[in-house]
């Protein structure tokens, strides 16, 4: 291309109506990014305590939810390893009927090995279930920013999403992701 063609191309591709920003600024006074008013010291400490308490409760809820899912998913591994250790003569030799008649040392060792082998896929499956349910229920959006405690007028994150943690919002079925 010659220099004249390049200059013509640059002039034609730019116009006075091209947008420099992706969208117009919001016209609603609630949505504008105005400087927010800071809270007083006592109010800031009270709101900080409230936000911290809420974040700790959300964290404990997530831990309890994860512990429930992991304990249910790893129950077969726990049972198999328990019976393997219980009936092995060198670990904890039980006088139970099934240990004397069904399980000897080699079958107890096989149960222990089987339990530890099936543990890895079950941990991955439990983590995938937890992550998909946490994404579905938007559990991580329940954590509140500390700007809520420092500035007046900061909305709760779940306020605009249609309920606590966005659970009431319709799930977008077009978005799919593999964990």
Automatic annotation (TrEMBL):
<protein>
    <submittedName>
        <fullName>Transmembrane protein 88B</fullName>
    </submittedName>
</protein>
<keyword id="KW-1133">Transmembrane helix</keyword>
<comment type="similarity">
    <text>Belongs to the TMEM88 family.</text>
</comment>
<dbReference type="InterPro" id="IPR033355">
    <property type="entry name" value="TMEM88"/>
</dbReference>
<keyword id="KW-0812">Transmembrane</keyword>
<dbReference type="GO" id="GO:0005886">
    <property type="term" value="C:plasma membrane"/>
</dbReference>
<keyword id="KW-0472">Membrane</keyword>
<feature type="transmembrane region" description="Helical">
    <location>
        <begin position="110"/>
        <end position="131"/>
    </location>
</feature>
<feature type="transmembrane region" description="Helical">
    <location>
        <begin position="56"/>
        <end position="85"/>
    </location>
</feature>
<dbReference type="GO" id="GO:0030165">
    <property type="term" value="F:PDZ domain binding"/>
</dbReference>
